[in-house]
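Researcher: I'm preparing a figure for a lab meeting and need a structural model of a single chain. I don't have an experimental structure, so a prediction will have to do for now. The sequence is pasted below. Please return the structure as tokens so I can convert it later.
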Amino acid sequence: MNGNSVSHPAAPAENNFLPGPVLLLGAPGVGKGTQAQILVAKFGIPQISTGDLLREHRRNKTELGLLADDLMRQGKLVPDDLVNQIVAARLRGPDTGRGYILDGFPRTLGQAEWLDSHLAETGSSAPLIAIEIQVDEPQLLRRITGRRTCPKCNRIYNIYFSPPRRDELCDEDATPLVQRGDDTEEAFHKRMEEYRAKTLPVIPHYRSAGRFRTVNGDAPVETVAASVLCALKDLRRVPSDCKASETGVR
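Model: Understood. Here is the structure written out token by token.
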């Protein structure tokens, strides 16, 4: 079990630098998944998604998966303790020794505190560092509500930033584009409310420990990736030629 949809071979690290355990934070739509995959490809470390882990445990009918399945069938949230156990099992994987990127965990302050204790108890070589990708909310709203997908070829468009040549029709096969149910304005605001209530309190936890940076996510993907790399090196106290004023790290 690896918690990833794609297997990535180990990659040589630039100047032998490895980021160690990394948490990418940010509101829905900031591009965490895109930046995580760039780090996966660059450093050959796994992206660990709690959503993927839960689905895999349920599919394989593990003890933890059966417990989660029973709760979810009752419409209940999977409690922190169970999620923590699932993450702990994944972190024992041999591919995590060089570092990893956490996706969707820790989502609450309680999970963040548990993870710090767990890493200390298991002798992790480096503490978890957290990087927030920040984009203004109006821009996020356009990113999400403007998203359209071709149900035939799965090509993704955005009616505000990368629209199809013909209104609401795929450029490749002229199939009518569709909007996912969770890409509506109402769904976006609900997700933002949950993010503010549960995840934003995690940020002071890492900031107070000197393990937090923010990067500007309202830039081309390559520029954001450069900012993330600069933030990683800064947090790991690795000398670099990064200039915060040029890359948006703060």
